[in-house]
Amino acid sequence: MLEVALRHRFGEQGFDLDIAFTAPGTGVTAIFGPSGCGKSTILAAIAGLLRPQSGRVALGGLALLDTERRVFLPPEDRRCAVVFQDARLFPHLSVETNLRYGLRRAPAVAAGPGFEEVVALLGIGHLLARRPGKLSGGERQRVALGRALLARPRLLLMDEPLAALDAARRAEVLPFLARLRDAAAIPILYVTHALDEVDALADRLVLMAAGRVLAEGAVEELSARTDLPLASRRDAGALIACRVVAHDRERGLTRLEFDGGSFLVPLREAPPGSQARIRLRARDVAVATEPPRGISTQNVLPANLVAIEAVTGSQEAFLQLAIGPTLLLARVTRDSVARLGLAPGMALWAVIKAVTFDHAGLRPAGDRPRHDAMEAP
User: Fold this and answer.
1) Most buried among 45, 54, 86, 342, using CB within 10 Å?
2) Closest of 30, 3, 361 to residue 215, by C-alpha
3) Model's pTM, two decimal places?
4) Where are the alpha helices (DSSP H) in 106-251?
């Protein structure tokens, strides 16, 4: 486990950081918030690049920093690898030599993936003879990831590694980050202000604003809360863990199961049994007080209305809907709430178009699929 508690002020009237959170011993913990909220400062303090005025950082019980006990391990002894926005490769060295530089920094007794494994994991075998100046931005970031992993760190820190890339390059690198997440048996702290990166990669979320932690927990849990700043975004909605069950290629549909039901979504290239997460935006969910008939919408799911929360500064409201143990959000007008006589405890139907789903990250195939072909709904 990673334990972090930091306090630091830049100057008398400067930025004030006062945070505390924990992260599990494996998987990705995303530190999410707007620019200037202190995300990168946290990474600098953990890596030993900043000496905070007070605080404690411990990894697996080992104190990297403890100001009360006057412990401050130098950066080279912390075994934290950092991947920045810019790849920071050695421009005069080939890709292979850059990678082997990371391997040379690994402790002799440290366990971790070998050179060939990392090259295959990140799909950079064809780049080994090139120099960084001959690579695209996405390729440079993949090499930087490989160099960091080959150093066999105890903790991997990523400081907005995709922020400098355009949309196409970001889409190129995200699958490789997902592979790295699944292959690395170490904690990863991932700083970002891009919600789609959180959806695709993170297991746990630390939500920040103005130097403070607003909330921390599982990504799915925080995404369904209407009391957090995430709810003010136009893409606010529930993040739902699913499993690919089957494909109907003739109809162009894929069936995803979640805890409590299933969705039909546009056909996606993923083998049955693969794990997936989808962001279902609240503004894409309608509700009905009786089963709708004769409509084009593919997904009509019975739900229980758990709560109604007014959206501050607007004429809208959030409906928290339970489909079994899974919570969805619907964003409707306050007029709809009054006109339909909505109240907590009512039985409703959630109405969701298949084409509205935003697909987040895929994970490796898990349990054996239960169906070989999709049954007609």
Assistant:
1) 45
2) 30
3) 0.83
4) 115-122, 137-150, 167-183, 195-201, 219-223
